[in-house]
Amino acid sequence: MAEPLLQVERLSRRFDVAGRRGAKLHAVDDVSLAIAAGESLGLVGESGCGKSTLVRLLARLLDASAGRILFEGQDLAELPARRFARHPLRAEIQMVFQDPTDSLNPRHTARDTIGEPLRLLGGLQGRAADERVDEVASQVGLPLELLGRFPHQLSGGQKARVGIARALAVRPRLLILDEPTAALDVSVQAVVLQLLARLRSELGLAYLFVSHDLNVVRLLTDRVAVMYLGRLVEVGPSEQVFRAPGHPYTQALVSAIPGQGPRVRLSGEISSPIDPPPQVCRFHGRCPRGEDRCAREMPALAMRPAAAAQPPAAPQWVACHFAR
What we know:
Blueprint: E1 4-16, E2 24-36, E3 40-44, H1 51-58, E4 66-71, E5 74-75, H2 81-84, E6 93-96, H3 100-103, H4 110-122, H5 126-139, H6 156-168, E7 174-178, H7 186-203, E8 206-210, H8 214-220, E9 223-228, E10 231-237, H9 238-243, H10 248-255, E11 302-303, E12 317-318
Helix pairs in contact: 4-5, 4-6, 5-6, 6-7
């Protein structure tokens, strides 16, 4: 992989548990990953696995409990989230939220919404700001006559375009997309996904793409990271991971895709994310391969033996004692 644009090292976030003094919920636990300039990395995993917490840490909307977030070598985790809001690097990392209706101010027109980051981060006002708003609206296919409308006057697809335009206005290098089409009708989803693919190609953007739709992730990303109970369990080239998943949890996820062969059904109880034992594999108890070793030793991400013969640019990393 090329030199990382964003590099995450042993990132963790723990939350206090109400009513349980000293107890901590491990939402993100010891996560390390990297995203190169222009690369699209998918992030997948079931609800509650920590995906949303992780992307909010990377967007600097949350402070980390431990670890580093390096953007071109500068540790963003050293800055409190409230201070990073006006930091010069804020413009480099922008986020497109899951529900465009909830993420747009109902009292702001589309023009005001797209122009706000220009004023706050770029120092643009007046004619210069209006020209940039017009430019980015055209890039996302939003008719200029709609810029004077409020969110309730726009369709779901139009609101999605406003959210994307707002993120693009300050010319970021990394776009974090948190389920960007989940709240849209199926007919609109395809159009927005095509738009995102085109924008990445034209603007050279790096994407962190979070989605429950594995087919979308397979089509729109170069690599994929699989998360389970706050930890990464597999990372590798998207096509390679979907064709030959190495972790038992990834195998269960991929088997749920229509046409992927026999379904792998998991049984057992999901482990609690509250103060989990550090030496126990998080997937232990649901894993069809689980053995005594899994209850004594947490597996680390390691290059899958079968991937060792692959080109250096395409390693596949799996956190499982029995990956082949």
